[in-house]
């Protein structure tokens, strides 16, 4: 599949979401951060806005659920129009069942790990997922500083995927910019979320291409 760029609309203007989606027409995905003020100390948007955005945006929606009880809510995001639904390992009670429900409804299923959550306990259930999202900041807010301590986990995840002969994508989220994207691509990431780097740039589409080129140039896998 190669390198994919997923701008996060968390830093976009929430009153102009359709225009903000159009401003990153080169992007592979639109990353939508759903926060419930419980799993993280911030509140963003939910099902009705995802439903409207799925109709208004040309890119597929990559919904990142930073919510409690994703087992209950995640499948509904597929019905709302998301093409990929990511839920957190720390919040779910039945990851296999939830991933299977997401896939049965026709979307890609992904498991997200906060910076201090290891990948190793999930080795045996990797095949239940289409993607692993490795957070490189503590979830909750855009514009935070990239946590270098998360890079070895990207490498270990890539090794586990190869060991089992699987075809999972590794998505990285938090503090991704022209400064930090290369070290993540080198470690084995292939889907890159970028919020502030893209939406605070003079031209968001130009930044999408810049990030794509930087990552592609150091990718060997
Ligand atoms: C943070 C969100 C991210 C956020 C990234 O909890 O999951 O998707 O928007 O923003 P930047 O790229 O500014 O760190
Ligand atoms: Zn996110």
From TrEMBL:
> Sorted alphabetically, which SUPFAM superfamilies does this protein's record hold?
Ribulose-phoshate binding barrel (SSF51366)
InterPro entries membership: Aldolase_TIM, Ribul_P_3_epim, Ribul_P_3_epim-like, RibuloseP-bd_barrel
Q: Which residues form the active site?
A: 33, 173
| Positions annotated to bind a divalent metal cation | 31, 33, 64, 173
What is this enzyme's catalytic activity, as reactions? D-ribulose 5-phosphate = D-xylulose 5-phosphate
Catalytic activity, EC: 5.1.3.1
Q: What PANTHER family does this protein map onto?
A: RIBULOSE-5-PHOSPHATE-3-EPIMERASE
Q: Which NCBIfam families match?
A: PRK05581.1-4 (NF004076), rpe (TIGR01163)
Spell out the protein name for this chain.
Ribulose-phosphate 3-epimerase
Q: Which organism is it from?
A: Kribbella ginsengisoli
Lineage, broadest ranks = Bacteria, Bacillati, Actinomycetota, Actinomycetes, Propionibacteriales
């Amino acid at each position: 599949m190669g390198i994919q760029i997923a701008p996060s609309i968390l830093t976009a203007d929430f009153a102009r979401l359709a225009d903000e989606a159009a401003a990153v027409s080169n992007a592979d995905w639109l990353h939508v951060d759903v926060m419930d003020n419980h799993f993280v100390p911030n509140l963003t948007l939910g099902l009705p806005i995802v439903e409207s955005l799925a109709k208004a945006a040309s890119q597929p929606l990559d919904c990142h659920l930073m919510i409690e009880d994703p087992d209950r809510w995640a499948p509904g995001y597929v019905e709302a129009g998301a093409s990929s639904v990511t839920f957190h390992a720390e919040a779910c009670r039945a990851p296999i069942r939830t991933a299977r429900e997401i896939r049965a409804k026709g979307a890609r299923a992904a498991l997200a790990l906060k910076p201090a959550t290891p990948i190793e306990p999930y080795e045996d259930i990797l095949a239940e997922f289409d993607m692993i999202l490795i957070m490189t900041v503590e979830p909750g807010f855009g514009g935070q500083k990239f946590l270098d301590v998360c890079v070895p986990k990207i490498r270990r995840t890539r090794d586990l995927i190869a060991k089992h002969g699987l075809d999972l994508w590794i998505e990285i989220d938090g503090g991704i910019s022209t400064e930090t994207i290369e070290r993540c691509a080198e470690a084995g990431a292939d889907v890159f979320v970028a919020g502030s780097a893209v939406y605070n740039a003079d031209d968001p589409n130009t930044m999408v291409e810049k990030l794509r080129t930087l990552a592609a140039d150091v990718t060997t896998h």
